[in-house]
């Protein structure tokens, strides 16, 4: 049996650095760390989840491939029970942007220039990007991934300690430079335009996004 990743997790896997040690937060069944170890991309991993049920599934998968010496499964609320020196690449996937921001802000060692983060916020990536930018993190590669009928945001970040000011539209588009999945951006504009009808002023953000999309079509 070969572990196969969904398009979403493949996008995450591509951003993990070769030879790194990984912490997979919200590991679910453990497909990501098992896949990366089996393919020789990482040397070790810590798989963390807040719930025992998915962690048990992860343990079963790790055991199936006899990777207990490479992958450690830990019950953890975000990063709270993950030892600082267990990983230098940290993937936080499958949860809302607000929750991911809270996980980072609640971890005393998260602001560390040696750590490399990969995020996959299922909702509100703009909230996570804004938190990162306002707290000294710099966003790197940033992409939109299609899986089935859904679109997902996947991007990386490192802590630099430098706070930079960005236009509000940046928090919605980040460093995205591939606008192939036009449906995602049309949906984003519809969402913002509907919010504007409810009394919120997103007009400048909408204009910036439309300009960016038109420039890249």
Description:
It is a single chain. This protein is of the alpha/beta class and 217 residues long. Helix content is 39%, strand content 24%. The chain has helices spanning 7-15, 31-38, 52-64, 97-105, 125-134, 168-173, 182-197, 203-215; strands at residues 20-25, 42-49, 71-75, 89-95, 116-121, 137-147, 150-159. The chain has a 7-stranded mixed beta sheet with strand order 3-2-1-4-5-7-6, sandwiched between helices. 37% of the residues are buried.
In summary, what is this structure?
It contains eight helices and seven strands, in the order H-E-H-E-H-E-E-H-E-H-E-E-H-H-H.
What structural keywords apply?
single chain, 217 residues, alpha/beta, 7 strands, 24% strand
Strand and helix map with partners:
Blueprint: H1 7-15, E1 20-25, H2 31-38, E2 42-49, H3 52-64, E3 71-75, E4 89-95, H4 97-105, E5 116-121, H5 125-134, E6 137-147, E7 150-159, H6 168-173, H7 182-197, H8 203-215
Parallel strand pairs: 1-2, 1-4, 2-3, 4-5
Antiparallel strand pairs: 5-7, 6-7
Helix pairs in contact: 4-5, 7-8
Structural class: alpha/beta
Strand percentage lies at: 15-25%
Strand order of the largest sheet: 3-2-1-4-5-7-6
Radius of gyration: 18 Å
Shape: globular
Euclidean distance between termini CA atoms: 41 Å
Low-confidence stretches: none
Estimate the helix proportion, in percent: 25-40%
* Biggest sheet features: 7 strands, mixed
Total count of strands? 7
**What is the N-to-C succession of helices and strands?**
HEHEHEEHEHEEHHH
